[in-house]
Design a protein that fits this description.
By secondary structure, this protein is α+β, with helices and mostly antiparallel strands. Keywords: 4Fe-4S, Iron, Iron-sulfur, Metal-binding, Oxidoreductase. GO terms for molecular function: 4 iron, 4 sulfur cluster binding; aldehyde ferredoxin oxidoreductase activity; electron transfer activity; metal ion binding.
Length: about 725
């Protein structure tokens, strides 16, 4: 059936009409609330308090979710919400990386608030349609589509008979269905989950944008924490927004000239330096695959090792030369000259339901190549691209899938699980055929895919209770923390990065603090105080991007000439000033770089209190698996024996000569675990938290978020 005809089969459940309005100084001053349990649609005011205390984006998401749920709320309870918001700078077209949306919900994996950022057109088009945020609560009885027409001023909830589930099919189909013409497709953005969201806890959301040069719908992912699983549980088939008429002044900024000037500065830097710095316009984030290998930071075999002799087979030049289309303006929002959203066009799929299809694969990102490839011991670029495609279209978080599969492979090789348990899958490191079949099983809800799709934390519990595995060993090698799987960097030799993973609010994702090079390579933060300061500033600075609808890559993936003489080069101070100028130019406010950090501190501490309210957010929840801090096995120690023996001599005054590896492992472990605890003490003190990780009352007062309901959460722990 033609998709236009299929749309006629949709059953309208409710329609809401609204006055169009427009953004003023970055805000529309209202948000859209939808309850699927009773098909209720409402407009809610965005108050001055919200803008002052929570800024936008992730901040708005946290505030709305806080008011929607109770301490006992679970991810699949009807009152759990999915909140999408871009922030006051979201949608500007003058500065690269301003098309981000932030998605917030209670995570199926962690039980905590999860936030995930995503590109594509949805967030800006939602704002230009008249809404600073979208809250979706409740559960539908049958599959529904939410359609927001930002030009007509209508919102509809439609029951849909569409059987298709996978992201690339739904993205194409619904773009065609809701667009009036080929030209109109660029005005459509679709949010979908995928088939795996019904069977796993690691479902993601795909956000589309229409690539007018390729004439295909592209997918960007809000990947972390199982947001797509929540989406599917609510019986949402898709959320579709349409808005025609994007142009550079739709935020109605206070001073557009300051925005233009900042944008011109960065566009010039990208043009001049990208080809010799990080090659984002050539290969995107995959430019660092071989760099991570060189510095022993590439996760290999479930984070046991940091490099491999076969890494050259998946190095960035392999994807550039053979797979990634060159010369395309691959920005995922208008005006982004960094153009890092790379794609492999006309890629032929070899397995699964789309075998023989020629598809456009978005990526690979570094995380995909490292997690799907090196961490599982699979150095095959075609496998990486194929599994990348299937993760996206099935709606599976590629980071979690890579880390889960690597964990399962190590368990298999240690005899903790076997072919009988895996249903015949030979999950040895390097077995691409078994890994891709595991992925297909997750989509179908079959076999060992049902087990792996529950995530590393639940797998550890099952393997101990059902198969008699050693819980201590599994805790050491199971690379999850707070229930979220680690992203794809090996932090063994960077204490600051161990904290950058362990001391996050949502779990070990590098978007809060990526300090490996500052700490391990450049030795710029040698003392505990230095590390604590870095673990204060950089998580707060990076949080700010998520409050404003910005991508972090233009901040430090292009380095201006002025940075060579900067007093704090790791902060890229010229670019920090750009962000200050952008915020003031849009909102008409007059913040400085210190106020920028203060904005993030409010939201960051509020999220910590939110975690405490949900039963987490304390010191015990900030512990990390030992493999992220040091070698667990004899094999790991002996692979770097010279390094570790030298550390024992120089740092502990311990003579390793003649000692068994097991003894040396124990001595090194005691030292590294003690170092991590001392780091935690220093970071808590710098953040204004007590020794249990609870924000102090004077910290909340200083930040102006000492609301009675917030103080009431922390008081019992102070």
């Amino acid at each position: 059936m033609d998709v236009k005809e299929l749309r006629k089969e949709h059953k309208p459940l409710t329609e809401f009409r609204y006055e169009l309005g427009q953004a003023e100084k970055g805000y529309t001053n209202r948000s859209l609330y939808i309850n699927l349990s009773d098909n209720r649609i409402e407009s809610k005011p965005v108050t001055d308090m919200m803008k002052e205390k929570f800024t936008g984006g992730k901040g708005f998401g946290l505030w709305y979710l806080w008011n929607a749920v109770k301490p006992e709320t679970k991810w699949n309870d009807p009152e759990n919400e999915i909140v999408i918001s871009s922030g006051p700078l979201g949608g500007i077209t003058q500065y690269p990386g301003s098309g981000k949306s932030l998605v917030v919900t209670i995570s199926p994996l962690t039980g905590l608030v999860i936030d995930s950022n995503v590109g594509g057109y949805f967030g800006p088009l939602l704002k230009f349609s008249g809404w600073d945020a979208l809250e979706v609560q409740g559960k539908a009885d049958k599959d529904v589509i939410i359609f927001i027409d930002g030009n007509e001023g209508t919102i509809r909830i439609e029951e849909t008979p569409i059987p298709e589930k996978d992201g690339h099919i739904l993205g194409e189909m619904l773009t065609e269905m809701y667009a009036d013409s080929e030209e109109d497709k660029r005005n459509i953005s679709v949010v979908t989950a995928g088939s795996a969201g019904e069977h796993t806890l690691i479902g993601l959301l795909n956000f589309t944008f229409y690539d007018v040069r390729r004439k295909v719908v592209r997918l960007k992912q809000a990947g972390r924490g199982g947001i797509g699983t929540v989406f599917k549980d609510k019986r949402i088939k898709a959320i579709v927004v349409r808005f025609r008429g994007v142009k550079g002044d739709l935020n109605h900024p206070s001073d557009i000239s300051s925005i233009n000037k900042a944008g011109i500065r960065l566009h010039k830097e990208i043009c001049k330096f990208d080809a010799v710095q990080n090659r984002m316009r050539q290969i995107g984030t995959a430019n660092i695959i071989e760099v991570m290998d060189e510095y022993d930071l590439l996760p290999v075999h479930n984070y046991k090792f940091g490099s491999h002799s076969d890494t050259y087979k998946i190095a960035s030049n392999v994807f550039i030369d053979k797979y990634i289309t060159q010369g395309k303006p691959d920005g995922c929002w208008y005006g982004c000259s960094l153009s890092c959203a790379k794609a492999a066009d006309n890629f032929e799929i070899k397995t699964g339901p789309y075998k023989g299809h020629l598809v456009t694969v978005d990526g690979p990102e570094y995380e995909n190549a490292a997690g799907l490839g090196a961490n599982c011991g699979i150095f095959d670029p075609q496998y990486i691209l194929e599994s990348n495609f299937y993760c996206d279209t099935y709606g599976i978080d590629t980071i979690s899938f890579g880390t889960i599969t690597a964990f399962a492979m190590e368990c298999y090789e240690n005899g903790i699980i076997n072919k009988e348990i895996t249903g015949g899958l030979e999950l040895n490191f390097g077995n691409a055929e078994a890994a891709i079949e595991l992925l297909h099983q997750m989509s179908r809800g079959e076999g060992f895919g049902l087990v792996a799709g529950q995530g590393v934390r639940k797998m550890k519990k099952l393997f101990v209770e059902k198969y008699g595995a050693d819980p201590k060993f599994l805790q050491d090698i199971g690379m999850e923390q707070k229930g979220l799987e680690y992203s794809e960097y090996l932090p063994k030799e960077s204490l600051a990065q161990q904290g950058g993973y362990g001391l996050t609010n949502k779990g070990p994702q590098h978007d809060e603090a990526w300090l490996i090079f500052m700490d391990m390579v450049n030795n710029q933060i040698p003392t505990f105080e230095d590390k604590a300061e870095a673990l204060h500033y950089f998580p707060m600075f990076r949080t700010w991007f998520g409050l404003n609808g910005l991508c972090k890559l233009p901040w430090n993936d292009i380095i201006p000439e002025s940075n060579s003489s900067a007093s704090e080069p790791a902060k890229i101070p010229e670019h920090v000033q750009n962000y200050v100028d952008l915020f003031n130019g849009v909102t008409g406010k007059s913040i400085d770089k210190e106020e920028l950090i203060l904005q993030s501190e409010r939201v960051y501490n509020f999220q910590r209190v939110f975690n405490i309210r949900m039963g987490y957010g304390k010191r015990e929840n900030d512990k990390i698996p030992y493999r992220s801090a040091g070698p667990v096995t004899v094999e790991e120690y002996e692979s770097r024996q010279e390094r570790y023996d030298q550390q024992l001599r120089e740092l502990l005054g311990y003579n390793p000569e003649g000692k068994k590896t097991e003894e040396k492992l124990d001595v090194l472990r005691k030292y590294r675990e003690d170092q991590y605890e001392k780091l935690v003490d220093a970071v808590y003190a710098r953040r204004g938290w007590n020794n249990n990780g609870i924000p102090k009352l004077d910290t909340l007062q200083k930040l102006g978020i000492d609301f009675p309901e917030i103080v009431g959460v922390v008081k019992p722990y102070l």
